[in-house]
Amino acid sequence: MARSSHSLYLPPELIQMVFESLPLWDLARASEVSQGWRQLAIALLHRNRVVRKMSHVKHLSAQVEADPSGYLASCIHSLSFNFRRTLEEPPELNDAIVVLREFRKVILKLKNVKYLKWHEEMYFEANVMTYIFQEFAIQCPQIEVLTVYCLAYHPKELKFVEQLGKEFQFSNLKHLNISYEVWKEGANVGRAVPFCTSGNIIDTTPTISHLTLNNEAIVLNYDCSEMNDPPSPLFIDFFQSHPDITDLELGGFHEFVTEDEVRDPTLYLFPSLKRFVGPASICMDVLLSPTAAHLETLIIKDDLNEISEYLQPIRELARVIQPLPKLKELYFSTPADDIQGTLDIDSLKMLFAATPALESLGLSCFSFKLNDLLGALARTPKLTKLAARISHEDYDLGLNCPQVQALTKKILCQLAKACGKLWERRFLLINEDLRHAEWVDTPLNMTVHHIHSIGDDLNIEYDSIHKASIAGIREYPETW
C-alpha cells in the first residue's frame, strides 16, 4: 500500500473509506498514484455505470470483453441506460440495434448488477429489448431494482411490456417501476401499462416490496379503454392480492372509489406499507386506515396541480389526521415554480402533533416566516434533518457577505434552540417581501442564498432568483 516520503503507512481500510467519499474525477486521479490505490479505486469507479449514448454501449461492451478475468464486470452494481430523446426521430436506428445486439452477448458477465434502469426514448425496438431483458432476467439473479421507461413509435410495441410481465422472471426483484408511452404525430400519447403486467411480475417475483405506479405507468382515470372491469375496484383488488408491498408510490389520480358504498376502499389495503408517496387526497385515505399505525415515511407529492390546489387537501388532511407513532420522515413535493405557497401554521402544528417521532422534514416547497416556523418546530423534539424556505425581514439584496453570514448564524442558532437534535439544515433564504410573489414577477437581478449546514460546517451560496430553482432543495429525500 502507498507510503509517503516519511514512510507513513496508510491502511487499505482507511484509503477505502476516503475513496468512497470522493467524486469520480478525484477518484480517477487518485487511481493513478500507485498500483495499490488503483486496485482500490477501480471497483468504485465502475460501481455505478451510466450509459447515455450508443458509443457508451460499445465502449462498455468492449471493456467487458477485454477483461478475461471478469473483474471489471463484477464491479458493476448499478447500470443505468438513459437514452433521452433529442431529435424527432431516433437517429441511426439500424446501427443502434446492431450495438444493442452485441451488448446482449456480454450481459452474462454482469452477474453482480443489483440496480437496472432503462430509460428509452430513441432506439426502442421490441424484439431487441425483449432479448436484452430476457438475458438480464436469466444472467443477473441479483437484480433488486428494475426501472423501465419506454417511448415506442408504434402501439404494437406494447407487446414488450406485456412480455415483461409474462415471461421475465427476476428472481430477487424488490423494487419495480414501469412506464410506457407511444409517440405519434409529433406528440407523446400516454398509454397504460396493463394491470396484468405488474401483477404478473409480482406473481412470478414474490420478493417485490417496492412498487411505483404513476400517471405514466398505470393510467387509471385517463386511459381505461382496454379494461373490462371498473378501474378502481380492479386497482383495489390488485393490492388486496399483493399484501407484502412495503414501499408504494402512486400518482395520476386522486381518490380510491368503489361502486360498493359499504366497502371501505383502504380498510384492508397495504397491511405491510412503511413508505408511501402520493397526492394529499390519497394520503388521507391511507392515513385514516390501519396502515397509518406502521407508516414510517410519507411524501405528499402532486405533479399535476398548482400550488393553491396542492395546499387545500393538505389543510384538510391536517384537520383529520390521526396519530402516526412510527412516522420518521415527512416531505412535501410539488413542481410549481412559484414562491407564493405557504402552508398556514395551524395546519403545520396539527401535522407535527400527530408525528412525535419525526426525524427528517422537507418543507422547501413552502415559504415560512422564521418565527412561525420556529413555533411549529417546537413540536418536533426528535428532528435531526430539515429542508425549508425561510423568509426574513432583515434579508435583502443590499447585504454583503459578512452580513449574510451573520444573519445565517443567527437563524441557525434559533433553529438549534427550537430543535435541540437538529444536525443538518438546508434552506433557501428569501426576503419577506417575496413571500407572496411569484418567481416570474421578481427582478432578474434579485439574489437569494442557499444555506446548507451539517453540524458546525456551514456553506452559503447565492444565485439570481430567476435561476434559483427551489427544486435544488425541494426534492427530498433524494438530496440528503
UniProtKB/TrEMBL annotation:
Residue ranges of coiled coil: none
Ranges where the F-box domain occurs: 4-54
InterPro entries found in the cross-reference section: F-box-like_dom_sf, F-box_dom, LRR_dom_sf
Pfam families linked: F-box-like
SUPFAM superfamilies found in the cross-reference section: F-box domain (SSF81383), RNI-like (SSF52047)
Highest taxon of source: Eukaryota
Protein name as it appears in the record: F-box-like domain containing protein
